[in-house]
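Re: flavin-adenine dinucleotide structure - here you go.
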Amino acid sequence: MASAPRSSRARVGAVRTLAPDVLEVDLDMLDPPALAFEAGQWISVPFGPKPVRAYSIASSPRSPARLTLCADVAPGGLGSRWFRGLGPGDEVRFKGPLGGFVLPPDETRAPLFVAEEIGIVPVRALLGELAAGRAATLLYAAPDDRRPYDAELRERARRDGGFAYHPVSGGELTAAVETLAPRAGDRVAYVVGGEATIKRVRALLLAQGLDRKAIRWERFW
Ligand SMILES: Cc1cc2nc3c(=O)[nH]c(=O)nc-3n(C[C@H](O)[C@H](O)[C@H](O)COP(=O)(O)OP(=O)(O)OC[C@H]3O[C@@H](n4cnc5c(N)ncnc54)[C@H](O)[C@@H]3O)c2cc1C
């Protein structure tokens, strides 16, 4: 169960490079010692009195003492520079957990996840909450050399017959949604990425008859 957002402190543990300009960072919680959150939620990192940057929690709520974040640092702004500069032992301050891009407990429809590039982060956390065998489809649009978590997603698809994994390039996404949507049936869609892609995918899904309320999205940029 998620807690109310609060000011929090954590210490950077390991830092890993998952792909060119894609970094993963472990944060060991200091205060509170464990952060209760729901898969799909994010934290807000302040930069002075006004600017903030949001980072989704890539790791499982079942490990509340250590959060893993994953960022695309290619945009090169405030957030990317901060993320790139993180090293083991650094103390970080943030507010969280925040956001409602979560799996409702009573949701029985099969999810169709659509992730654009680093938008995979909350989707990875949501997938971690789905029981093996539960029907779910993931469309993951990214360049082949910049697709973090690809290996574990392929492995999951190999082990779990309920999970269909479709890695595609950005240019193939529209066609892939069109191909899969007719089979979407009684589905609920979770779309994450840039605004342009969210709009395009949402329009396609609406045209395929998905209910407006069955399309949930999180805009990263
Ligand atoms: C709820 C939420 C959760 C988020 N979770 C994550 C996360 O888990 N990992 C992550 O990397 N980012 C995430 N973001 C985006 C993150 O908050 C920053 O916007 C991002 O790190 C870029 O910040 P910046 O200061 O470096 O660049 P900015 O100065 O904010 O942006 C520079 C330019 O790049 C564009 N841009 C920003 N990000 C991208 C991108 N990934 N691809 C292409 N263009 C982009 C912006 O629109 C802008 O035009 C999330 C955003 C939201 C709202």
